Amino acid sequence: MKDQPALPAIDVRLGELQGELLNELLDRARVVAIPTRTRFRGITVREAVLFDAPNGASEFSPFPEYDDAEAAAWLAAAIEFGWAELPPIRRERIPVNATVPAVPAEEVPGVLARFPGCRTAKVKVAERGQSLTDDVARVRAVRAEMGPDARIRVDANGGWSLAEAETALRALVEAAGATDSTASTTDTAPEGSTGADAGTNTGADARDPEAAGLEYAEQPCSSVAELAELRTRLEGLVRIAADESVRKAEDPLAVARTGAADLIVVKAQPLGGIARALDIVAEAGLPVVVSSALDTSVGIGMGLHLAAALPDGALAGACGLGTVGLLTGDITRDSLLPQNGELPVRRPALDPELLDRYAASPDRDAWWRERIARCLGRLTAPTA
Ligand SMILES: O=C(O)CCC(=O)C1=CC=C[C@@H](O)[C@@H]1C(=O)O
Ligand SMILES: [Mg+2]
């Protein structure tokens, strides 16, 4: 395993082009603000920059609170997707999971209805201001709605201490339910779901072992050391996935090096683009789930390209790329919304009328343009 891979090659080529490229980026940029359907990671409006780039549409949408050092990786990703040569794809459809925000249990059926055919659900837990009782009720509601063959994973976004995580995950594994090994898998699978997820069952004799309890717990605690300890304590009960410990870490490979996770969640924008994410996956040598950054369909297209470019066998299950439906709108007429539990690998075209409809206010537009300039400066600044 080598040290952290460098940002994509395009960054080092930017030196002389920086002024020119900045004008190019700003000329081709449109800033939008799209309300979310429900609060998601504290957000009710998703802001994004869309570039009408030579390769087609590209997206830059680091969350507003991220500093320039972190946001610069997202700009590298946008430049790569819009202007650079991309790694070849190996598949044309990607299975996706339903994403269930930290909603009250009674809202679960309405959320799941926006993910037709999905046989895996990722449930947000450990939300600030909520309790384990809320998480248990939400996970139970997902199991009740999706049936015994669905895979259920939870994402705590590092919200638990080690002790809290151990207690909560034991309770959530139980809430997710050990499936009845005699039940038929064909009774409960909705029409069109068969074969959509990686690992979907085809009959009662082929019960999916991952459907029992929780498929995995994503980022239950914030530190790599806590993840490693929790993984040992819960071995055989639930697998551990690392998300923030990969995408926000100075060393995204520390998780793999220290055996802190069974799999990693990778996101194209935060990791600095498709090529760099592929490098990290190769270096980590762990199974992967590609996930969204709550992007518009354009950023989802970038994630799909990453998932499609992974080596055969690298994907650990359905990807978290079905999130466009968590927004109330989009910037294309041809949104990347799941059908039969999967998404086609393609880059959607920007729609001028929708870009106008969701245009950000002048002050937010100016804020994003200044952010682009600062982040571009970071990408080209000499590193120590
Ligand atoms: O993985 C999914 O199902 C959806 C994407 C998702 O959960 C996230 C998108 C954007 C920001 C993150 O806080 C969050 C995540 O933690 O994975
Ligand atoms: Mg996560």
Automatic annotation (TrEMBL):
Catalysed reactions listed for this entry: (1R,6R)-6-hydroxy-2-succinyl-cyclohexa-2,4-diene-1-carboxylate = 2-succinylbenzoate + H2O
Keywords tagged on the record: Lyase, Magnesium, Menaquinone biosynthesis, Metal-binding
Asked if the keyword Cell inner membrane belongs to this entry, the reply reads: no
What is the enzyme's main class? lyase
Spell out the SMART domains in the cross-references. Answer: MR_MLE
Names of required cofactors: a divalent metal cation
What the protein does comes down to: Converts 2-succinyl-6-hydroxy-2,4-cyclohexadiene-1-carboxylate (SHCHC) to 2-succinylbenzoate (OSB).
Protein name per its UniProtKB record: o-succinylbenzoate synthase
